[in-house]
Design goal:
InterPro entries: Nudix_hydrolase, NUDIX_hydrolase-like_dom_sf, NUDIX_hydrolase_CS, NUDIX_hydrolase_dom, Nudix_hydrolase_domain. With 150 residues, the chain is of the alpha+beta class. It has helices at residues 44-56, 112-118, 122-140; strands spanning 2-13, 16-24, 28-32, 35-37, 61-75, 78-90, 104-110. The chain has one domain: Nucleoside Triphosphate Pyrophosphohydrolase (Alpha-Beta Complex). The protein is built from 3 helices and 7 strands, in the order ββββαβββαα. Helix 2 runs antiparallel to helix 3. The chain is globular, with a radius of gyration of 15 Å.
């Protein structure tokens, strides 16, 4: 068994959530949240911010830690057990540019219910739902505002 750790973000701008569409040689296809593998010497926060920037072109900022999801998948020689640490993040525009080198063909901000139905994996739906409820709670208490507001 191989253990792996990734970090990612639920990025929100004006109430909409950033998701990516991946199509790898027509074998792997679906909408996902931005995430990726921790590199040597990186904190989980640094990894999450870097991966969001690399995969979507978005310079997000972390609002708070949301939680961890876990899953496993098989590769030809072994089973990979993966932990993914998730952060609620804030963007300052609707801009996004999918990373073609990683087979991301589309990206965009969607209303919660649209993003929920687009997402391929149940564990990402659960994390997104938790993050969105945190966002709504912060917004209700007037604690959600961009540091870069004009």
């Amino acid at each position: 068994m191989i253990e792996a750790t990734s970090c990612g973000g639920v990025v929100i701008f004006r109430g909409k959530i950033l998701v990516l569409y991946k199509n790898y040689k027509n074998k792997y296809e679906g909408w996902v949240l931005p995430k990726g593998t921790v590199e040597a010497g990186e904190s989980y926060e640094e990894t999450a911010l870097r991966e969001v920037k690399e995969e979507t072109g978005v310079q997000a900022s972390i609002v708070k830690y949301i939680g961890k999801s876990q899953y496993s998948f098989n590769i030809p020689q072994d089973t990979v057990e993966k932990d993914v640490h998730w952060y609620l993040m804030m963007a300052d525009s609707y801009y996004s540019k999918p990373q073609r080198e990683e087979y991301f063909l589309d990206s965009g901000y969607y209303k919660f219910y649209e993003a929920y139905h687009l997402l391929k994996f149940q564990n990402e739906k659960q994390i997104m739902e938790k993050a969105y409820h945190e966002y709504l709670d912060l917004k209700k208490r007037n604690l959600w505002s961009s540091k870069r507001n004009v």
